[in-house]
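Spend some time on this chain, tokens included, and walk me through the fold:

. . .
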Amino acid sequence: MAYEFITVSIEDAIGIVALNRPKVLNALNLALIDELVAELERLDRDPAIRVIILTGNDRAFAAGADINEMAEESAISIMQKDQFAVWDRMRLISKPIIGAVSGFVLGGGCELMMNCDLIVASETAVIGQPEIKLGVMPGAGGTQRLTRAVGLRKAMEMLLTGEPIKADEALRYGLVNKVVPVEMYFKEALQLAKRIATQPPLAVQAIKKTVHKAEDLPLDEGMDYERNAFYLLLASEDRQEGMKAFLEKRNPHFTGR
């Protein structure tokens, strides 16, 4: 499909989606988010795709919401557009999404990053939620996901001051998985995606869903959910192939069945 604000490419079993508004540091307007979610859903339906990478460019993953678009909106007009409903659809993507981020990762850009399952950041990444400086607050999950990621005290500091943190601090707080030089962050994300793409797709998707359930469920309910997912995987052809390959001392060939 042809898009105005994102680009899409495929490498092996990896779908690569790049935000593409470089003149405004990939500021997130409504049309970009609509295109992005539509493409994520398309890749999620494609059986040939096993992992998705979401990225921007070296200067900016996304510097926040498009303030030019928002400035003249009223509370009623934004509510009527229900602009955050499309963000909720990202939670339903079953395949793992790896964020490859660099430069500005602010506001909506930080919220978008936190929708990813794994995150590789460049050393130049500057990450934060500066909405308070505009008289507002995050609306696409910033208060909720940031608190779960870095803890209450650090989230409160970042949200109430609007001050961002650098990549190395984000790594210490567990907000990102890895920090590498700027010339390496996309390559590192691609290598990670390729490693995951060799794993059995059904197990990958079951693990992603079960890990996210850990955020929402009490431990005993989460354990029940995990065990039921485990039992279902026992019925898969990939489970038979994986164990057979192990016993035969060869590499398995997983098909997603």
